[in-house]
Every structure is written in C-alpha cells, then in structure tokens.
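Postdoc handover notes: sequence design on the structure in folder B. Input tokens:
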C-alpha cells in the first residue's frame, strides 16, 4: 500500500501587505508617460515602498533617532 504524502503547513501565516500607494494616481502618472500598467505593477511598487520605509526606520534608529527624516530615504 502506497504511503500518502503529507503536505507541510507553513507555521508562519503571511499577513496581507497594507496598500500604501494610491493606485489611481500611480496609474495616471504612468499613463501620462505613455506606459501601460501591468496587473502586478502596483503590487511591486507597494512592496518597494514598504522596503524603503523599513530601511529608513532602521537608518534613523541606527543614528539614535525616532524621527525618520528625508535623508533616511536616500539610496547610497
């Protein structure tokens, strides 16, 4: 008799990522540049914004601040 393969359940449940970008405004700007907007474009942009916020918060904390400032978002 063949053994059934057990499916591993992930112990970590992925939380839905909060949307931080205004889809209509982003689409409008991209259309103004003559671009079409793919179905996953705004999800990717939202992820990128989340990443930058995380990096800026880490940089502020590393500099002993609780306040995130504009220069914390600059890429190096």
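Designed sequence:
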């Amino acid at each position: 008799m063949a053994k059934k393969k057990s499916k591993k359940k992930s112990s970590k449940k992925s939380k839905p990522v909060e949307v931080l970008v205004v889809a209509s405004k982003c689409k409008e700007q991209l259309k103004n540049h003559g671009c079409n907007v793919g179905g996953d474009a705004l999800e990717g942009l939202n992820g990128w914004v989340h990443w930058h916020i995380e990096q800026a918060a880490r940089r502020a904390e590393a500099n002993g601040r609780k306040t995130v400032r504009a220069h914390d978002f600059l890429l190096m």
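Context for whoever picks this up: The chain has a mean pLDDT of 87. Don't rerun without checking with the PI first.
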